[in-house]
Amino acid sequence: MSELRSSPLDAEHRALAAKMTPFGGWDMPLQYSSGTIAEHEACRRDAVVFDVSHLGTVRVIDGFEALQRALTNDLHKVGPGRAQYTHLLDTTDGSVLDDIIVWWHPDGHTFDVMPNASNTSRVVEAIGGTDITSTRAVLAIQGPNARTTLSSVFPEAAAVKRFHVQTLSWNGVDCVVAGTGYTGEPGVEIAVPRDAASALWKAVVGADITPAGLGARDTLRLEAGLPLHGHELGTGITSLQAGLEWVVAWNKGDFRGRAALAAEKERGVHRILRGIATEGRRPPRADCAVLSGDRVVGTVTSGNFSPILGHGIALAFVEPSVSIGDEVSIDVRGSMLAGRVVQTPFVS
How is 155-212 classified by DSSP, letter by letter? Predict the structure, then answer.
């Protein structure tokens, strides 16, 4: 077993008595003393801060053409000073090796490509660039009051619009700020040099923004119907199966994995990602079978209790014939949960 990496904010988490957990090769906070449900509700109703330093940052200079050839989306749709969600595909079967946010700096030359925690080296191999993950921390401030509360600490960051990117100074330190997140709530993510990370974290928490761990981040993204690599995306799973064809720019020319994905589009997908709302508080779980009547029609990829809705929710790959409104059941260790296929996001 390789040694777990630690965030530049590790000491801050331990000072707050965070429960730590391994995630993607990192030792990260799962929850703080208030607990996952309280942190989840704080994000939906007020504002929280996550440490997401485990995400990778691959810096690419003058890499527009390389990124166009490697990734599915089309950077022509945006421009300098914007962020874009995109996929890196396997050349053999078109499955999603990683889902990525690209931060295109306002200078027009610099791109920060943000892979999932365990995929940074894979992304460097595909696109080139320099892994600068160890040089910074990333704070995600999320929630309906995130911008208002953050404005007392870092007003310029609070003003960054959704999916925009700016380089801004906080206490004399240059930070990269993007109007992105993974909760379904408004907010920003701030990449701050590691030596200044603790000071910014303390200032944010001192402004009554609640620290939240990866447990709440997962339940929040599930309520928002957002995919998690290794569950709704990954080996053998394509953008088309995950219902994310909007991230594929078919008309931009060739890109990595295009031929395999186009072949799947031509023949049709054999499964599709759907949302399922279940009755009662017992949560559905990943890998549980989904049944229509007595027939297995799919498998849950992510499931949990929704603190906002008060019942279970799940994402599942099911046969394409399964439609919104269909009644299904989920087999949780031999106990059947009644459910209905619903439109996502579960919580808007």
Answer: HHHHTPPTTBEEEEEETTEEEEEES--SSSS-EEEEEEEHHHHHHHHHHHHHTTPEE-
